[in-house]
Amino acid sequence: MSANGSPAGQQPTATYDSPFLKACRREPVPHTPVWFMRQAGRSLPEYRKVRQGVAMLESCMRPELVTEITLQPVRRHDVDAAIFFSDIVVPLKAIGVDLDIKPGVGPVVERPIRTRADLAQLRDLTPDDVPYVIEAIGLLTRELGSTPLIGFAGAPFTLASYLVEGGPSRTYENAKAMMYGDPELWADLLDRLADITSAFLKVQIEAGASAVQLFDSWAGALAPADYRRSVMAASEKVFRAVEGYGVPRIHFGVGTGELLGLMGEAGADVVGVDWRVPLDEAVRRVGPGKALQGNLDPTVLFAGRDAVEAKTREVLDAAADLEGHIFNLGHGVMPSTDPDALTRLVEYVHTRTAR
User: Fold this and answer.
1) Nearest-angstrom CA–CA distance, 116 and 286
2) Alpha-carbon 166 to chain mean position
3) What is d(CA 346, CA 336) in angstroms, rounded to the nearest whole number?
4) How do residues 53-71 score in pLDDT, each as one tens digit?
């Protein structure tokens, strides 16, 4: 322990006893903490206003804009944690990969990685590559005070899929072809991405992030045997790289019900669960020693207040015996969600779970 009462290496002293971090550590909390993936985003009119005319990647590189966008849902919804406004491809762009985020499409890579020679695009990431991240986190931690800031990165598999496919995909045919057909190249690609991801998370933690989340958004496309054989080691490497900082590590993927146990084994302290698996079943699959995060279906928020509260009670009831629970949606906030519905949801969870 350090002199301030937080574990050695723990960065955020002001946030250590926050409900969010207590839940991550599976300690008693005054209420179930709440935050939402994509809470700093298109559902907020104030977000759309400040982003008007500013491209996505450019907005991620303007510290004052990043600060404002990250703070908006904290002000509006009274969530228990902020998540750093960025994108999973930011570290790739920072090291010189020729990519852009195209409206209505997503990240598009100019020269997809298909051969060993293409790996030359992926050099190591250093703090000098992302000064805007360091500056923004410094601004944010001063503004947030006792509210934790969650840093994040894309997991090696999801980043590799974008790089190999050249953009979003529903079939991942090129990525899987490399994984099955050239396992040595695939392993080297994921290992290199694990190093880049680790470096990006370290930058965020050292700048003041209170926790980090690894998004393996596309991992649900994998069978458990393929995940264990071809993906898990790279995620394990990332979690080991930041273990010494003492901040909670969250692991999240979509459609990963069959992978929950393996995702926990990879080294996270908290396992995110999408809406497809009830939390009382998820804890059985993950096993002891992990907090869980989730897992209201985001579409429920379109159904009216009574339905939202009824479905929220189902989530909270399923989480009643968990050692640690962070309430979240089962995926991100949808752009057309009514922001007031999110505000009411936070208040409802806080009130219903008050100890």
Assistant:
1) 36
2) 22
3) 18
4) 999 999 999 999 999 999 9
Q: Which tens digits make up the pLDDT trace of 242-252? A: 999 999 999 99
Asked about 116 being catalytic, the answer comes back as no
> Helices in 223-352 by DSSP H: which ranges?
224-230, 232-243, 260-265, 279-286, 305-318, 339-352
Choice among 26, 51, 192, 249 that is catalytic: 51
Phi and psi, residue 250, nearest 5°: -110, 140
Rounded to two decimals, what is the model's pTM? 0.95
Q: Which of 16, 47, 132, 162 is catalytic?
A: 162
Return the residue matching tokens 């009130």: 351
Tokens for 270, please give them: 């908290």
38 given a catalytic annotation: yes
Asked about 114 being catalytic, the answer comes back as no
Which residues lie closer than 8 Å to 306 by C-beta, 6 or more apart?
A: none
CA atoms within 13 A on the CB side of 273: 31
Which CA distances in Å does 44 have to 53, 84, 135, 308? Answer: 16, 16, 24, 19
Closest CA to 221 of 297, 158, 159: 158
Q: One of 38, 76, 192, 249 is an active-site residue; which one?
A: 38
Q: Is 87 a catalytic residue?
A: yes
